[in-house]
Amino acid sequence: MAVVEVRELVKEFDGGRVHAIDGVSLAAAAGEYLVLLGPSGCGKTTLLRTIAGLEQPTSGDVLIGGHVVTGLPPRARQIAMVFQSYALYPHKTVLANIVFPLRAAGMEREERERKARWAAGLLGIEPLLNRKPRQLSGGERQRVALARAMVRDPQVFLLDEPLSNLDAKLRASARDELKRFQEDLGTTTIYVTHDQAEAMGLGDRIAVLNAGRVVQTGPPVEVYDDPADTFVATFIGSPPMNLIPHDGRLVGFRPEHLLPAEVVPGERVTVPLEVDRMEYLSGDRHVYGTVSRIGERTRVVARLPATVDTPITAGRTHSFAVPARRLRFFDSRTGQRAAPVRLDG
Ligand SMILES: Nc1ncnc2c1ncn2[C@@H]1O[C@H](COP(=O)(O)OP(=O)(O)OP(=O)(O)O)[C@@H](O)[C@H]1O
């Protein structure tokens, strides 16, 4: 059953001048980790705030647990939220901040402190329990806000970039904790991020948003391998998918699928790559160059894993190839997926 669902949701601001959400229908199943991914300003936060009840939709409905909750206040929705601006009570200690919702719900002191210590332990903030928010770093405050949401055993967890203030290492471990916590408790989670690595790592499913609309929904691997349009193809993946204009189409392939021809067996399209630059990144070689055979002359990037040790020199042309099954085709006018065409080579 869908625990959270939005139907034909529209949210306008400024008397209709801003279409923050432009007809979104989306559902998160029980226990699912759904990630909303998209560039800045695409409407992710507005969508989450509307689900939470902090914004009223211009039209459309929000359902939680199968019931229409449009019009109900946030506290009637059995959800816990953590937003970018984690509103902590400045005069309370970290511990008092975390237990606050439990206290309000009438839980016994011992029980609420046990829960708070459990959440604080998970997030590595136990040593900070007696401090005040102003004595914490941004990342620590963010973890306190997360802990406060976790102790409530909510039916639904709404998280808006809750890890944005953590450094890379802490972020990775907090992401891990969050995922494990979510799996253990099976809490339906909707998680907003503009960070595709986070989306790919956390989500059971990703909904990619662009300009107030959902462009594609699916498991990370599907969205990555079979992007619905050129927006998804280039927004997801780093470096993004290569796109080569060819006869009204764009021929797309991921950088890791453009490899020295000698290591690409089977049905393939070979292309001479005029290499102009190379970068070494975490053991991979990123090879930048220009191809001319598939379609128009286009600058592309190839990503070679450390296991491919073919010598490549900038300033030379090397024979590269893409496995035929890795090619994706898009309509160059609409950007939508299109039927494949035969390529020479
Ligand atoms: N209260 C508001 N009044 C007017 N316009 C708004 C309001 N809130 C959001 N918007 C506009 O709606 C659009 C969507 O904003 P939203 O904050 O949902 O995007 P986002 O995807 O969460 O962006 P970010 O990743 O930068 O937080 C933007 O164009 C934004 O300027």
From TrEMBL:
**Top-level taxonomic group:** Bacteria
The portions of this protein that span the membrane are: none
> Could you tell me the keywords of this UniProt record?
ATP-binding, Cell membrane, Membrane, Nucleotide-binding, Translocase, Transport
Q: Does the keyword Transport apply?
A: yes
The protein's matches in SUPFAM superfamilies, at most eight in alphabetical order, are given as:
MOP-like, P-loop containing nucleoside triphosphate hydrolases
For this protein, what is any one GO molecular function term? ATP binding
CDD domains of this UniProt entry? Answer: ABC_MalK_N
ABC transporter domain: which residues? 4-236
State if Ligase is listed as a keyword.
no
Its recorded name reads: ABC transporter ATP-binding protein
Q: From which source organism is this entry? A: Amycolatopsis thermalba
